[in-house]
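fold-stage: in
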Amino acid sequence: MDNKEKALIAAKACDNKKAKEIKLININKVSYISDWILIAEGLSDVQVRSISKYVEDELRLLAEIEPLRKEGINEAKWALLDYGDLIINIFQPEIRKFYDLENFWSNGKKLDYP
């Protein structure tokens, strides 16, 4: 399974949990830290935790991978799942605006997710 397929599994998992504004950005040509960045939005602590857990479960089941590290799950203002070649960020709206990762990674190639 290639990295794009893993990113799409994660995006679909976010969508299944009603995440908002799902963005996939391919950064392998502009950064060495990862191949894909996924950015999504949950409207509450509970939803951010739920999305994070479901994404982790789906990637474990379908791609047979585990995160290298997880951050922010308990506070759930911004949850990060780091899979090395895929970094997943799930924000609450005000935190997402503050960090503006879409702008930071604007030189990456965006992949539209319906």
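fold-stage: in (second)
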Amino acid sequence: MTDEFDVLVLGAGSTGTNVAWYARDNGLSVAVIETELVGGECSYWACMPSKALLVPLHALAAARRLPGAAEAVTGEVDVEAVLARRDEFISHLDDGAQASWLDSIDAELVRGQGRLTGERLVEVTAADGSTRTLRATQAVVVATGTRAAMPTIEGLEQVTAWDNRDVTTAKQIPQRIIVLGGGVVGAEMAQAYRRLGTAEVTVVEAGERMLARYEPWVGDLLAEVFAEEGITVLTGRRAQHVEREGADGPVRLTLDDGTTLTGDELLVAVGRTYNTDDIGLESVGLTPGEVLEVDDQLRVRAVAAGWLFAAGDVNGRAMLTHQGKYQARIVGDVIGGKDRTAWADHKAVPQVVFTDPEIAAVGLTEQQARGQGLDVTVVSYGTGAVAGGALIAADSRGKAQLVIDQSRRVVVGATFVGPQMGEMIHAATIAIVGAVSLDMLWHAVPAFPTVSEVWLRLLEADRGL
């Protein structure tokens, strides 16, 4: 028998569940197919556990930098308490609450591996091997996300290495860890483990600097902070060979310059790969394992009939939880007959790196803006040089920067580095999305004494005051 629903959603992560929510709000019947935990990568192995690890560590560091509070800090971090709090935030890898939420919106959860078998058809294979065929009367939405990419390195397939799931859910803190990759996961986890007590942390980055997608000064500043904390950062180096002594012995990583690093664990954090290799794409003329390119209504371009959608990481537009949810809302409305288009992914994608100092950015970097042919001015000011910044943290080396399109006199890019900068970025996002003129921003008066006063200083820098 074939069960019919208006919408079938492959993947019950944050994107897939939001697709279901909005589709149901539009009066459509929905089935969500999931082979792992409802809530997906972000809830259990990425965003939530990583931040649960980082927040108490950063709070302790902030107190130690603040006179008066520093004198009251007499102990070290309670590692067991941090890990226990982490486990609470990931519900001890139990998805009961999120599955119940799907039930509360009357979306059916179908557990198993879903695979397309033809137009609007999905076959689900349950854990016991039984199968069930589902048909969508209107649309199928692929929201299967991504997983950690494993690079081609001699010996890596024979060695047990950590990925983001292992590092965010570990029960023990190793004495030595090698981090392969200086992107967001690598940077956050390197600092987290150093502050949790790992004696030797080494970051290996093939590029010129960490966090290569941000403004160049961001990675340089973070490398300075890491050096002060005892984290070794090796840039311009590539891994060539890896081996481990026995099943649980030390791991040795050989770099292209002949250097050999030894650690208790190796974290591979060099990027992500699309979870599209086992969802039956070949049945509808698509190539398994590849990105699903979509239009601005999130329809898969290569499927002419328009019934197949892709939202979240699998379409490669903006691989961030909040952008996946944004796309999900649009997909749910589009299938429900509303005229919606996704354009924020092209213009203003906010992102935060939860290191200490915190890094937040939205829009274009200076290089990207100039690459688009824009006539830009770049202004900057220290986030610790305003009263609010000085009150929050002593000796802050943070910095705020705006990229201004002079022809339109609007902000097209913003970067903030310093304490709690993730809470600053939404104002910049609004300014970019709304194309708010600089003349208008002069009348958005920041409260004193807050860090947001840096906006006034940036506007003054633009005027040369």
